[in-house]
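Can anyone check this?
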Amino acid sequence: MKTIVICDDNPSILKELKTQIEQYLTEPILIKTFTFPKKAEKYILSNAKINILLLDIVLEDEDGILLAKKIRRERPDVRIIFITGYLEQTRRIFQAGPVYFLVKPIKAKHLKLVLENVFSEIEEEEKNYITLQLKTGIRKINLKSIFYIESQIRTLSIHMQKDNETIYMKMDDFIQLLPDTFLRVHKSFLVNMDKISHFSSGGIVLENEAKIPISRSRYKEAKNRFLGYCGNELMGRGKTEK
């Protein structure tokens, strides 16, 4: 279930926005409304699953833009949509990073369009993540952060940009969960082609300087896939298929 937080010091605007969103969205959604920014901030920072924050720029007790900057530092995953009745404030919006904004009085068609764009971005970003049951618990991993996966006697070691994780799974099963940016170069190694800095028959060097062996039996197929992938990247035609 998606969660939207609305923060505005005008209760009538909160009620109106909540009603408009409920009329627009057909899927189940949790909408939390706040007139006090401190309470909204506390709720957002203490709850993991929040998708969107609709935030008034001019609040009675706090500057909405400063609050947004604070939230983005702690929760960069939360999309922020500013709402304002003061057009002269719009220049300051971009101090808080790339966001959308709506001008009061908010028209339903404008709210619908912005929410469609934001939810589309969220759905697209979800494709870059994989949720796994790991030794350390359930974790959502950004696929772009993975450099390579190594198979070690009934377990897989996932080597990422900042840390590593271990999962009980066969390599053949794990590769089915991944996009075509991942390449099997050895029975025990799977690499993220986005992270390859050097490719040769002697092995692969990744951007983090990790050296990955490539088996003789897989070299030709792996080379062709990598060349095809590089060519498609340069020409902007997308990815090759497995």
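Reply from J.R.: I decoded it. Confidence is low (pLDDT under 50) at residues 234-242.
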